[in-house]
User: Fold this.
Amino acid sequence: MQISSEEIIFLIGLTSLIFLIAPLFLIIYVVSYNRKKKKHQEEKLLLQKTFENELLKTQIEVQEQTLKTIAYDLHDNIGQLLSITSITLSSIDLTNKDKSAEKLAFVEDLTMRSVKEVKALSRLLHGEELVNRGLAAAIEFELEWLQRSDKFTINLDKQNFVAFGGDNSKETIIFRLFQEIINNIIQHAKATEIFITLAQIENSFKLTIRDNGQGFDVDEALRKRSGMGLHNIVKRATMIGGTTSIHSTPGSGSEIVVNIPY
Assistant:
């Protein structure tokens, strides 16, 4: 079977066209791949920068919260102790030895309590060091200060929790999440009991905070500007690969659950 000259020309043309188109497709593919790779690297750098900015913001907020706690304690606790000490000292009558001895013993007790409070405050000033010792230790120390107000009954369950096992930056963000949730309860919930659970479930860390307060409409709170605190909690958990679920109904308290993968 002979091939006509027209068929030969067609085959040569088709072959030439294939050899021309193949490199063109290859060039287009390489250019497209490089663009996607560049875009991916830019997105990765942007995410890293966003995370670093959020971490810095969180660290500043942790420090601000620590300073607020110190200010309240200086005013409400140490200030009161020193005022009572001053009043007691000024009321001592040196001519009455028995009464003087009794009052001096009371002043000594007040002074020792003041020293103890100052030492506790110095520990609180090292908020970053506190987080570095471990997430559970930082949360326990924060709850210790909250309990001193005698306004709340605190229930902490960490039987299924040993250590977060993540990096310090994640732990700092989780600690700030915890502080923000607790602050929301203090300011808005009108609660008397707070329940905190730290747990390790498979390959994730689970933080559950529940209160017996007045509760709220979750959808409405998230729509309003007053729900910014809730938005911050969700956003920060998402930033470190976690999820947040918020459950509450008016009159029935509230519960916030944060899951962070290791």
In short: The radius of gyration is 32 Å. The chain has seven helices and five strands.
